[in-house]
Amino acid sequence: MARAEHISPEILDRFSRARPLLRRRLHEEEAHAMALGARGYVRMREKCEQLVTCLKQLIEILEEMSYGTTNTILEA
Fold first, then answer.
1. What is the DSSP string of 2-48?
2. Alpha carbons 32 and 74: distance in angstroms, whole number
3. By CB atoms within 10 Å of each CB, which of 19, 29, 53, 59 scores lowest?
4. Which of 65, 44, 51 lies closest to 22, judged by CA?
5. Which residues of the chain have pLDDT under 70?
6. With contact defined as beta carbons under 8 Å apart, do 8 and 41 qualify?
């Protein structure tokens, strides 16, 4: 993975704009997975849960990169 020091401000800006959209999609998929489970669609629920896991990891990585870059800039 790229280190935070090597991320340009332009890329960081794109990450910042993507995070709210990713969070919204995360909440939608979590609700969808619960609804599918309630209806008995086990396999479809599992696929939604896989997407939820991936979205959570992506959001976490983007936040770490953002915080790391901000801290690196502030320390410089």
1. --GGG--HHHHHHHHHHHHHHHHHHHHHHHHHHHHHHHT-HHHHHHH
2. 40
3. 53
4. 51
5. 1-7, 68-76
6. no
Residue showing tokens 């696929």: 47
Tokens of 3: 């280190």
Q: Give the DSSP H/E element, type plus range, for residue 57.
A: helix 42-75
Instruction: Tell me how far apart the alpha carbons of residues 55 and 70 are, in angstroms, rounded to a whole number.
Output: 22
Specify the 3-state DSSP secondary structure of 61. helix
What local confidence, expressed as pLDDT, does residue 76 receive?
42
Single-letter code of the amino acid located at 55: L
CA distances from 51 to 1, 10, 12 (A): 21, 27, 23
